[in-house]
Structure of Pimeloyl-ACP methyl ester carboxylesterase:
Amino acid sequence: MNTSRHVHDSFTTAYKDARGRTVDAGGVTYAYRELGPKGGIPVVFFVHLAATLDNWDPRIIDPIAKGRHVIAFDNRGVGASTGRVPDSVEAMADDAYTFITALGFDKVDIFSFSLGGMIAQALVVKHPELVRKLVLTGTGPRGGKDIDKVASTTYWDILRATLTRSDPKEFLFFNRNATGKPAARAFVDRLEERTSDRDLQIKTRAFQTQLKAIKKWGRSAPDDLSKITQPTLIANGDNDRMVPSILSEDLHRRIKNSRLIIYPDSGHGGIFQYHETFAPAAVEFLAR
């Protein structure tokens, strides 16, 4: 059965070539992709607002998959996964738990970005035994200041992008300056590297429900993050308009012994703009 782990080159380390798979659990068919060498503790990727499997930057995922079993998935109601998106971050975390345990894992590392980072926090608070290491990027804590304003910023930038016929992520994730604009275009181009077996787009209703969940998360009482004892890496740009950068500092203060990286002259997508330095830092953190 497990012959593949003995054949050295039988796995892919390129996200653009990762095979699409599904698993049924709790009445939902979850769509996911896996890559990298099987065996050991996998790294599960939790994606951002409005995103599907096609939204992971290959320059971040591929370096991690060189040495680790990597799994990216669509949560309930997102992309090719069935069911309806729940209207709370905590329920999304319950679905993520269902997905991970359905694959037979009792210990994982989590790499998360934005909304994915909120889901990851809710998951680790409820199921601390499941998570060994935690990477939280472009995100903020439950009850974090101004998280409830994400929706208005998002709608405004979608409008700006529509008017200029560009991808909303160019506005939402990057500064509109001489550094940010080319970084934004390069990022959007990298997301197009996978040409076959692309994921389904997120539905408008699902996107709106995610925004409602984020607003609720921002207006809820904070979780006690001092309970998080997992090694945690926190990263963001210094000018995040979506999930204010100050919230990354807030997370760092509240999660003991966490490590914080703030990239200069960059926004919500700071880790993508600085992928050449961030990817090795993430690889090193997860391998330690």
Notes: Residues 1-8 have pLDDT under 50 and may be disordered.
